[in-house]
Amino acid sequence: MSPSRDSLVDALSMKGGTGEHSYATNSHYQRNVFYEIQPVVIENVREMLVEVSFPGCIKVADLGCSSGQNTFLAMSEIINTIIQSYQQKGENLPEMDCCLNDLPESDFNTTFNLVPSFLEKLKMEVKGRCFVSGVPNSFYSRLFPSKSLHFVHSSFSIHWLSKIPDGLENNTRSIHIKDPSPPNVFKSYLNQFKNDFSLFLKMRSEEMVPNGHMVLTFVGRKVSDPLYQDCFQVWSLLSDCLLDLVSEGVVKESDIESFNMPFYNPNEEDVREVILKEGSFEISKIETFDHIVPYKIKCIKEEKEEDQSLQMEVGKRQASWARCITEPLLVAHFGDAIIEPVFNKYAHYMAKYLCVSNHRPNMTLIIVVSLTRT
Amino acid sequence: MSPSRDSLVDALSMKGGTGEHSYATNSHYQRNVFYEIQPVVIENVREMLVEVSFPGCIKVADLGCSSGQNTFLAMSEIINTIIQSYQQKGENLPEMDCCLNDLPESDFNTTFNLVPSFLEKLKMEVKGRCFVSGVPNSFYSRLFPSKSLHFVHSSFSIHWLSKIPDGLENNTRSIHIKDPSPPNVFKSYLNQFKNDFSLFLKMRSEEMVPNGHMVLTFVGRKVSDPLYQDCFQVWSLLSDCLLDLVSEGVVKESDIESFNMPFYNPNEEDVREVILKEGSFEISKIETFDHIVPYKIKCIKEEKEEDQSLQMEVGKRQASWARCITEPLLVAHFGDAIIEPVFNKYAHYMAKYLCVSNHRPNMTLIIVVSLTRT
Fold first, then answer.
1. Alpha carbon B245 to chain centroid distance?
2. Among A4, A130, B27, B362, which residue's beta carbon has the most beta carbons within 10 A?
3. Are B229 and B60 in contact (CB under 8 A)?
4. Looking at beta carbons, which residues of chain B come within 8 Å of A54?
5. Could you give the ipTM of this predicted complex?
6. Domains of chain A by range and CATH?
7. What InterPro entries is this protein classified in (chains A, B) (predicted)?
8. Yes or no, beta carbons of B131 and A116 under 8 Å apart
9. In angstroms, how far apart are the furthest CA atoms of chain B?
10. Residue B113 is nearest to which of A105, A116, A119, comparing CB atoms?
11. What are the tens digits of pLDDT across the range B209-248?
């Protein structure tokens, strides 16, 4: 096990297929967030249609599309908005080129099996005019020819870093930023995010036409101090589960010492700073959504606050969610034998956490950034 | 079992993955044919580079790419030819957009896992300039925006029809054209081929730029009479194996009565006629390669004509080849329980056939058509 840092990130993909533990089955949360930010996407598509001149074909990309039905949520909305806009103006529909991107290890087969029904839903009138392709590469590299993209969407992706940050050797008791962490840990994560996000913007700036629009949705945090009440509780709980397995002798201590999540949830200031410094895009708007985080379920408070079995049920559901976004990565580093025990523990910790979480503020939020290529 | 004719063709894909029976493992034959026709592809790419004016990005498509290493054979050759041509002229390299197409059910995951090494091989100098995408749809429909493609390649694909021809209800004792066949059978197959190939050309004509080039390689036959010595022996043998299973009670008679291969191997005249009638392309050249067909192995004649165990070995190899190109289709119609018995029988029949085949002429050949979009 314990492959190199680079090969670890090669394994960074959501759990494929359509089985019990797959991303396709467990990504309700991401779907719900999309429904909340949908008006932002629609507004940006409409603005783009006004500001951009077309060569006859509108090219749209969804970056970090993962697999399953969610993949087509944003793309459907974007395409429908384009169709409606053209129909309202009484103009002939343009051709539309829909590009779905994710890392080569992602499960494109599951996504591609849904393409016929996606095209079917676009109805007869669009027949032969909407083309779908998959682009298997990291969005921290060039994905498309120069000046070819009109609209870019990315949801729940750019909080994933291109690699595990350098200089985390002393972050031995945690897989992320967690109170207490050695002081350099936050700095390493922040630097990696700044470099990665800046590179992401540079690559897109080369690929997008002038006045092209981009909407990015990702997990952020409310405060500048990333140690404030463990700003991404999912990783703190996962750290605790792995440390338990170390003390039980199931996981080697050296394995957890060398493992860190390639993830950073920036605050609004981090995001704004990188965009301004990179300079290719104008910020139309940065919005934040204080969305129900997956480990804080309303129904518990509203219906049966004391019901432990319900809390356990929700704990299990949250464990499934954490599992579908981390399993390939954990398997690549620790092997597959740890997956069941880790997420059994995770469900229990989460159930306990739910007892107290209603009295704690939610430290994460969803950040939605609307950008225009200048 | 026995799904409708349309859903049957939905299952038309080569066997995915990289296992023992996969297309990736068993497609040496297709690879060898490519090496033989490689000069034709290179010549056509060079001609295209002379005749076409570029907007900065050259877009190339491989249609019916299947999965595994073979997928990148033609694409590598095409891209390398472009690079060399530009380097010889001392000009800056253009961007290159490589599109890999197959049906949505194909195993794109196996192909996409090979994309990083494909890009790696293109060396540092091309870094960031070559983009790879997968296009999951039938090539009997539009796949790409209008006038976007510069070069199209398709190998071992367009002998596969878009559907099982209509009117084959009386073709009860065979899964294809086989002596004896009811007289309408050949006509049904020929009509379906003409319609499909014509549609293929029409779709490509809309997608390609003026003077764009296309090279199509497929299985053809030498004679006009398709009954002459069972012009595609692979299906005759497969018919015999399935009929054996009917007589053994393993396969229902009605299942074989309703099953026909969506395959047609045209002769040169069929091909020429459709291209001329469709009218969008000029034939630069039609070449035929009387290639070693997979069921006729030189080594048997040369080394040990009498060695039955060697013949059985070759029989098994040919059964693996026939299996990797038909398994998903057979499973969709007959269920997966028949696969092992069918191909065990197939290996035995093939071994027997090899004893006599050296005294029979080879009735199939590879047809390579070079076309220019007028």
1. 27
2. B27
3. no
4. none
5. 0.86
6. 5-373 (3.40.50.150)
7. MeTrfase_7 (IPR005299), MeTrfase_capping (IPR042086), SAM-dependent_MTases_sf (IPR029063)
8. no
9. 69
10. A105
11. 999 999 999 989 888 887 777 777 788 888 888 888 888 8
